[in-house]
Design a protein that fits this description.
Chain lengths: 566, 342, 300
Amino acid sequence: MTTTEIPLLDVQDLTVEFSTRNGTVAAVRKVNISVAKGETVAIVGESGSGKSVTSYAVMRILDRAGRIASGSIVFSGIGLQSAPESSMRELRGREISMIFQNPRAALNPIRTVGHQIEDVLIRHAQATSQTAKAKAIQMLRLVRINDPEARYHAYPFELSGGMCQRIVIAIALACQPRLLIADEPTTGLDVTTQKAVMDLVMELTRQRAMSTILITHDLGMAAQYCDRVVVMEKGVVVETATAREIFRSPQHPYTRKLMQATPRPGIAIRDLLPEDTETAASAPVRPPAPEASAPILSVRDLVKEYPRSGGAFAWPWRRAELLDQTVVRAVGGISFNVGAGESVGLVGESGCGKSTTSAMVMRLIDPTSGSITFEGQDIAGIPARSFATHPLRPRLQLVFQDPTDSLNPRFTAARAIADPLYRLGGITRADEARERVEALARDVGLPLDLLDRFPHQLSGGQKARVGIARAIALSPRLLILDEPTAALDVSVQAVVLNLLVDLKSALGMSYLFVSHDLHVVRLLCDRVIVMKGGRIVEEGNAETIMTVPRDAYTRELIAAAPHPPI
Amino acid sequence: MAQASRTGIIVKRALQALPVLAGIVVVTFLLTRALPGDPAAYFAGPSADARSIAEIRKSLGLDRSLPEQLLIYVGQLARGDLGQSISTGQPVMDELIRRLPASLELTLAALALSIGIAIPLGILAATHPDSWIDHLCRMLTTAGVSLPTFFTGLALVYVFYYLLGVAPAPMGRLDIAVLSPPHITGFYTIDALLAGDPATARAAIAQLALPAITLALFTLAPIARMTRGAMLQVLSSEFVRTARAAGLSGRTVLFTYAFRNALLPVITTLGMVFSFALGANVLVEKVFAWPGIGSYAIEALVVSDYAAVQGFVLAMAILFVLLNLVIDIAYTLIDPRVGKDA
Amino acid sequence: MLARNEKATASPTTSTAARKNETLRHVRHVIVSNPATLLAFSLLVVILLAAILGPALVPYDPLETNPSRPLQSPSWSHWFGTDQLGRDVFSRVIAAARLDLAISVAAVAISFVLGSMLGSLAGYFGGWVDTVVGRLCDTIMAFPLFVLAMGIVAALGNTIENIVYATAIINLPFYARMACAEVSVRRDAGFVQAARLTGNTDWRILAMHIFPNALPPMMVQVSLNLGWAILNAAGLSFIGLGVRPPTPEWGIMVAEGANYIISGEWWLALFPGLALMIAVFTFNLLGDGLRDIVDPQRRT
């Protein structure tokens, strides 16, 4: 971008304040961002960085409690920061568009998708009520929706998450805006769907020489799809550079920390942490290969079927069609082992059956058929209802995905960690429990003064530690980790993953690591099992699978994960 | 495809009302069998002697077993036989049919009035938070749910009849001097207009005004509160954010996107409101001496006329079921997700 | 209620005491900062005083008739005037507080305990329990509730106890449905699954883990319901059910006073009506305040 070229969007010294219960808070301070015509800029940051607030300020759709305190936002020569609402309504959708995360919630649930696209077209005089339908169908075709004439009449609840996001993109691009702001558009979508959506957005915007702002927490995605990257931390811009420069030579320590913490090929787990972190020298970076002995867990022909919920009404002559679909096979007969001291990854996208499998192995739900042999005993036949008091219960534990959801809001951290000790650990005296809880807190790196806090007073990383402490309280032999870091910021994730590795070798546990994030799985696991549609499609050594996958689906999964240019 | 299953869902809803009706019939049956002492004595009345009590017992089948009695009862209902009122000597069914239009006129007028005020009030309060209309809405809502209906009625009578003299005496549907219009629907206002008699219509409306306003004030509060709450929630939802980000006009966002979605919980609330309204109807009828089924029931209670009370409870319940069916169907028409595995 | 376990923790009572102090401070802050809540709590205190101490402190005997001074408008000797039998309206209004409050508290207590128990079981175990409880609630809710109360009182007999039972029955579905919803939403929550993993049986989970979390929203409903129960009982006595003269009760006093409104003697009906209104208003406001105490993010 030469100095003579005027940027399409020029944000200078922008400060946005929110009036909260505790006074005025500056969510964004003196931020400078410029986007040239046809350029794609990424705003990268973790939670609380102010990246979304900046874009809301540009669109002037801030909450009632927020206001632009100072600074300027100039779009194509027009000052946006104090433009009247009527002018903004002209600009929105026609010149500047925005797409959000959580696509199904972003669409009106009781209006057909076709009509929602038409609304925008008619509003900005891009079509009349006669021509709108044809144009809407054209947009549906453009965003690669199959059978657009039929889908025109569909409601959002009838479409998948990926399709809903395409509809949102269609609405945003219908009037050919010059700038598209994409706020975490792929969060919550499957990895393969993410790639499809991002490819589509990039293709369409480049075709029309549109400028794009991509807001994301994923540095890899930012570098892969964008020309320039702006890094934000706690409301300020810490670094701005081209994608290449950011990855080759990050300047700011925060950028370096973010880069370090992003899981990518070719590094070891310790490399996720900032260089100056002290780690236990004696803890091995890579856990030792499992010994050749009987596997600690052996699953054979595991099946889980659910009856399809019979809510739909059918006229009698249509009943026969429904009978075929009376059963859903979540898991269709899988077999695998986890060896003693081994770390096995279970990978797949949503709906592949990995969470159902882990719930069955954990004995939270009953399998329809098959065997689950743990430490030589078949536990599949023991009903889930009565497993809570079974002697094997303490030896088989789970770390949950959502640390907020998995902690009782009315229990302090100490009480939550002490629960297994009281119920299964044979501890009855409160002071004895307190001792054990404090020891566990030290093991997971949770500061002792946080023990008497409630979950809503703890950060995401702290809650994750509480969940881990609770899970290892009874020294289990097998620990299933169900996407334990999915809800965490990437820098926190780095620390928690290292913690998990240290604990495994210290306590001699075996891990079954369920995840959709291939990079993380590669760092943590010896072997990987890939699932799709309730079946295992590939299984083998982690490194091998990631570098030379045999199955087409595995290849698709690996190709879909963002590849930063390192 | 969507249309056919919509009709199917409506039929399914209508059929679902049947077990509810069955439950109602059973409960009303049990109510009269739960009487302390000898039910036959109650049905025979306070002035009956042992012989007439025994006759009543036989004719009502009270000497049979309970399941048999239930069957007899259902048979009677199917024939439209709700028993005899011991105070008037007339069949209960006839009395109810004669008095029903009065209650319906009052309730429907009140509901129309309250919905017509409450919903716009709620919308305005939600779109102009912290303005005077928002405060008015909140005040009305809090006061409205705290006020006993009979008290509001009496207060209105005192102010508008006794003090100001603008309202007529609370003595029923029409002033003594005015003749009732020829019976077509039973609604005096409508019948008078249909007969081309504006003077009678005006008289009827004058009598209807205070009771309808009293009842309307009662139902206004929950509807306004729900509308305001639902609108506030919908206006901060993600799809409204998308609509705003697409630059849609204020009116489109408000009505096509926000209001239609907010209407869903409001319609659901209407069920509860109808329940309260039918109950408050009884109280209003007493305050204003309105000759509907509510005052019929009150008179019947005083003289322990159990057949009449039973008939009244049954009639009100069936009316309520029909109203709920209308609500269900309205909901189904607005929300395409109903009946689907969303 | 978990304080029992933490009473003797090594990190001693300071943590429990500190937490109790913090809760008290938060409660006081909520009451004082929101004028509506402050008003509600003050009024509640007044009403409770009237109910508990009222009958002992009133200037006249609520039942004492005085045929020489009927229908006197409010004056210094009779603050609220006298009714048609010469009884002091003020004393009767204050004395009635006890009865009205007793009826509604009893009714709400019965329906809350029974309803939340049934609802929790239905919400947690599902299956036939859910079906039966659901059918029971549906059947009750199929009637306009006040009408059903009329029918129940007519059937069981015209006594005050039956007013309590009738009000309890028609209130039951609220609590049952609410408990069912709150419990079933949490039944598959992460922390419940975690509790299963840490060795809690189903009954323990329902009682110690789920129900304490479901309780706060139900407490708010209890407060709102108390107001509605008072209105309900007053309505029933207004039409002649339950309370008989000469017992002082707000509803029946308004009914007696209604006859005199058209001749301008407004004080017989106004003061008991106002008392009703204030009581119901207090409980409604209290509900909002309770909601704020329990969940600070929500303000209407």
